[in-house]
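Hey team,

Sharing the 3-oxo-5-alpha-steroid 4-dehydrogenase C-terminal domain-containing protein run so nobody has to redo it. Sequence (339 residues) first:
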Amino acid sequence: MELGLVELLRAAWIAGTLPILIASLPCSWLGSFHGVVLGFGRRGKIMQSSAHYKFTVPQRFFSHFYVVAVAWTTLLLLATWMYACRMAPIVSEPFFYSDLGSYLAGRSNIFSFHRSRLISSENKYRIWLSVFLLLLMEVQVLRRLFETVYVFRYSASARMHIFGYLTGLFFYTVAPLTLCCTCAPEVFKFGINEVTEFLVKGRSSMQAIEFHWWNFVNPFSKLGWCQWIGAAIVLWGWIHQHRCHAILGSLREHVGKIDEYVIPRGDWFEIVSSPHYLAEIVIYAGMVFASGGADLTIWLLFGFVVANLVFAAAETHRWYLQKFDNYPSDRVAIIPFIC
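Structure output:
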């Protein structure tokens, strides 16, 4: 059986999540495996110095993640948006709005294939939902690129494992693709056809593209409450992550040496040790909510984010406890009041 894009993405997320989950199990006989996974994920202050510089890269290479993420997400967003406007325009047809409202409210039956108009409406909704999710991702990766350039001040000695570096590139390549995976093959075919037509027929024979801004934004007004609540959740996490990153970035301004550390305080740092990780989980939870929660592939993306960040936060929390005798005892690693 030929594997499609969705199946490959699901397999990739499962393959990335399972080792982390196994390494997180509280079993003594898994200690060596835990150490291997932890070694791959260590970076910055929690990576031991000098002896572990083999197979590492400077932590400032974090910016590479977001350069790739911005370029790739922007490409997917523009291609999907153009495809949606050209092939799935929202028209003022009474049956479309009633059927779309039924779909968003969960009252439509996806197995009613004889209702061709409803299927057409659902396909349009699916495509425009992908555009909406990519917009949320674009806002996130643009801010992260800005922060890596202007907010963070990485120590010259800060390193990360090459496997962690490759994992970051993998994540920011596959995550945007996951958000539009249900229509990505159609978008790719559309893009290839457009490029081929341009190369064969030339610019003069191409269909003129008329820009009407209302056609680009009007479909978003037809989205349901689920999408806008999800966007609000993303914004909530987005704001707090920026605040926490600003706090971390400012710590370098208040210490005498670049390799010195102080206890971060403010915002969500008052309750957890890694609030920027918590905010990241909130952001992707918002994306799951905005997607409607029916796409298993997006759930698997979220599962990877949670497993990876909880695992990393636990190690960061242990480092803080070992580094500072006066570390606040009421702080937990990442999930407030739990762990």
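Confidence is low (pLDDT under 50) at residues 93-100, 105-119.

Ping me if you want the raw files.
A.
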